[in-house]
Amino acid sequence: MIVARGVTKVYRIGPTEIRAVDGLDLSIEAGEFLSIVGPSGSGKTTLLHLLGLLDAPTSGSVSVEGRETLGLSPRELTRLRREKIGFVFQEFNLLPVLNARENVELPLRYLKVPGPERHRRAMEALEMVGLSDRANNRPAQLSGGEQQRVAIARALVTNPTLVLADEPTGELDTQNTCRVIELMRNLNRETGQTFAIVTHDPMVAGYTRRVITLRDGKIASDSMGAEAELACDPEAPTI
Amino acid sequence: MLKYVLRNMWRRRARTLLTVFGIVVGIFALTVLGALSARLNQQVRGAETWFTSKISVVPSGSGLFGGSDRYLELSKVGEIEAVPGVKSAVAGFGLLLSDQSTGFGAPELIVGAELSKAQDLLNLIDLDRGRILREGDEGKVVLGSTLAEKFEADLGDTVELRGRDFEVVGVYAPTLSAPDGFAFVSYRDALDLFREVNPYFQVGDIAATIDVIPEEGVDAEELAARIGESVDGIKVISPAEAEKQISQFSLIFNAILLGIGFIALVVGGLSIINTMIMSVSERTREIGLKKAVGAETGSVLSEYLLESAMIGFFGGVIGVLAGLLAVYLLNNATSSSQVTVFSVTPTVAIGPVVFATFLGTAAGLFPALRAARLKPIEALRED
């Protein structure tokens, strides 16, 4: 589904050269549920941005569903990104002036989906994350866990084949972390969408089947393990 | 999109309102001055038909609008009529209706014309009712529209001009210019009034101006030159020259207007640029997010352009409304003296709004381009 071949990303800060990602090969199959872990500065987020076509590698190439992205114009990259890829960020990145539904509609707007259909699909996505009753609330009126669920709904509303999540639980407590991961795993099972989650939380990584560990911009280990069973406490209050 | 843009503007309402207010002030000034200029241009244009349809002969050293205490000997009329191509030369005499100046625009005048020959001249202005003066109409008057209103006079009424009674036989239609404040009487009556008013100033038969109507098919400019050559002690103002003198007036007013517009442009434009730069840098992450979820450069660009255009538009609308209100109140305040200082034309009412919206859009271009060109990844990293 997505293949990275020898990708390298070099940042230059003054005279210093930082190889954030260093000649990395990676292949992710359709329907996978994987996590990318590693210490701070190991290149997790940079790799996610390269896979998500938000950033271009210094060398090497990324192909999405067999389509080589090297040499595509920014416009073509934007198009590919909004059709195939959904993003979930650590800070949720919801637009404060839009309510939950309008935030979820945003990617559909850019896909020029007509209003009534946009509305319907946004409500469906909110339903999937269990927030259809908060559709008219603005982000400031939602808890952190709810905001992240809205962000997930926004990532899912375009039916992307690949969902990239960068520390999606970084600002959530244990119960909300559990719920967000549970939600993503259920979606992965139900829709077959591919999820790649960057995290430094071992608990989150433990819930994924495949765990890729990065160190110094290279893959230190790539292991298939058993998924831990999720045990979210249904009685715990959402914050 | 508009709803979204409006909500974004409302996020920093104090800043947005202050920026809008900056535009309001500029546009208010532009509207009021625009109305003033429109009124003056109206007067000037109206005066143009009056002054440019004929050749005016004045004492040498004098101008189109007077400006000397010299007068013409009545014998000049005969000399001018002898010039080939002259259809008629009409002696005219003007004196102020009252010693109190109205302070604005053209003065109110009693204009006397030699009625036996003045038909063409008096027909230059359209009549509203009654008739124009004709030979033997001593003691009769045809009023300009503003004067008729001021005296509340209609046909058959008697009005008092400089202490003498005149019967109103006609009222001219409004020209929105100088002749609206003229009371047309016979040359003889005007001269008599002049003598009564200035008893120490013993004069014979004199004229302040001689208006020349060219014969059909005669070039007015050439005729003007011919008159100037053949008659001494006079100054000939041809239609083209009159137009030049008149348009100099408009030119000055319009230059003032442009100056104000330019100041509004610089001050308002800079404050919009400043506000938009701040908005863009505050929302860098949001722009990054939008680009990450699929916004193209063009849609970010148009969003921010729309925002700055809206600042300009709101400022323009409020500024124009405030300006029109001020114009209305000022016109009301001066209406008792039959003086209209401001005139509202479509250009005056709509022009500033268009101008402000354009200004907003132009001022937003640089910040909007900056927003649109942000790389998603760098914008998202911003804190």
Give a structural overview.
The complex is a heterodimer of chains A (239) and B (383). In chain A, 33% of the residues lie in helices and 27% in strands. With 239 residues, chain A is α/β, with parallel strands linked by helices. Chain A has one domain: Rossmann fold, CATH 3.40.50.300. By secondary structure, chain B is of the alpha+beta class. Chain B has two domains: 180 residues, no CATH class; 172 residues, no CATH class. At the A-B interface, helix 2 and helix 3 of A face helix 1, helix 9 and helix 12 of B.
Number of domains of chain A: 1
Number of structural domains of chain B:
2
Q: Over the alpha carbons, how many angstroms does the gyration radius of chain A reach? A: 18 Å
The parts of chain B where pLDDT drops under 50 for at least 5 residues are: none
Separate helix tally of chain A: 7
Major sheet of chain A: size, sense and barrel closure? 6 strands, mixed
> Based on helices, strands and strand pairing, what is the structural class of chain A?
alpha/beta
Helical fraction of chain B equals: 55-70%
Q: Oligomeric status of the shown chains?
A: heterodimer
Please name the fourth-level CATH homologous superfamily of chain A. Answer: P-loop containing nucleotide triphosphate hydrolases
